[in-house]
Amino acid sequence: MFPCCYNILTGLSGPPGAGKSTFIEYFGKMLTERGHKLSVLAVDPSSCTSGGSLLGDKTRMTELSRDMNAYIRPSPAGGTLGGVTRTTNEAILLCEGGGYDIILIETVGVGQSEFAVADMVDMFVLLLPPAGGDELQGIKRGIIEMADLVAITKSDGDLVVPARRIQAEYVSALKLLRKRSEVWRPKVVRISARSGEGITEMWDKMKEFRDLMLASGELIARRQKQQKVWMWNLIQESVLEHFRTHPTVREQIPLLERKVLSGALSPGLAADLLLKAFKTKTNEIHPIQ
């Protein structure tokens, strides 16, 4: 269940327009040219109305998608928490078994998906553009706390000065947050996928992180903890699905939903009635000893 940890599982996130796809293309080409095998698992947003998704990462990464040592797998969010599909974990295992030594998981924007991705990866990287108003105010504190590496993108041309300013702000901000690791302090780097500046240094930081975490035993401990989280996530999904498809519950759901919508019944009482019906019928079929 636990690969040797010589591969690197990295979660990538950032607000729309941060240049995630542009960075992955440049970064991925650099890695494959150095002999690595790269897998990109990109989670795309699904429409709440139609259920469709864009799945456009292969069109945004034209060079990388043609690389024989790179595998890009866009998957629709499908309404699951923050866009991280249940199959992402299985895809990680398959990629590890297929010999991909670097696995990147690109998530949707900045929101709940990042908290789910943090329970799948070794390293969490936050990509931020150099311009955007109140930068520190616009990013949730919890997401900054999860970041092992912050990369300020588009650090070229007229944006070099604002990129340096934001880098200094985040260096100061990260000093105030509690430590997540005994051996690693989050770093802030500036990169440019256009000029290539800082990307080699960023890769060096990622390797340093992996080596330190592996030597200290924290990497293996983190992966073990993630397996437990994954187990409970699967249990929650399965129990909820079993609850919804239970014959007695399924019969009562439409009526109770109408009563909640009309205000005749409170949501809490409706939930209690459904749970009572579920437990009563379940105990009749499988009596508690």
UniProtKB/TrEMBL annotation:
Record field: catalytic activity: GTP + H2O = GDP + phosphate + H(+)
Taxonomic placement: Eukaryota, Metazoa, Chordata, Craniata, Vertebrata
One MF term in the entry's GO annotations: GTP binding
Keyword terms of this UniProt record: GTP-binding, Hydrolase, Nucleotide-binding
InterPro entries xref list: GTPase_ArgK, P-loop_NTPase
Protein name: Metabolism of cobalamin associated A
Gene3D superfamilies tied to this protein: 1.10.287.130, P-loop containing nucleotide triphosphate hydrolases (3.40.50.300)
Subunit structure, as described in the record: Homodimer. Interacts with MMUT (the apoenzyme form); the interaction is GTP dependent.
The species this protein was found in: Rhinolophus ferrumequinum
Domain of life: Eukaryota
Family: Belongs to the SIMIBI class G3E GTPase family. ArgK/MeaB subfamily.
Entry function: GTPase, binds and hydrolyzes GTP. Involved in intracellular vitamin B12 metabolism, mediates the transport of cobalamin (Cbl) into mitochondria for the final steps of adenosylcobalamin (AdoCbl) synthesis. Functions as a G-protein chaperone that assists AdoCbl cofactor delivery from MMAB to the methylmalonyl-CoA mutase (MMUT). Plays a dual role as both a protectase and a reactivase for MMUT. Protects MMUT from progressive inactivation by oxidation by decreasing the rate of the formation of the oxidized inactive cofactor hydroxocobalamin (OH2Cbl).
Pfam families associated with the record: MeaB
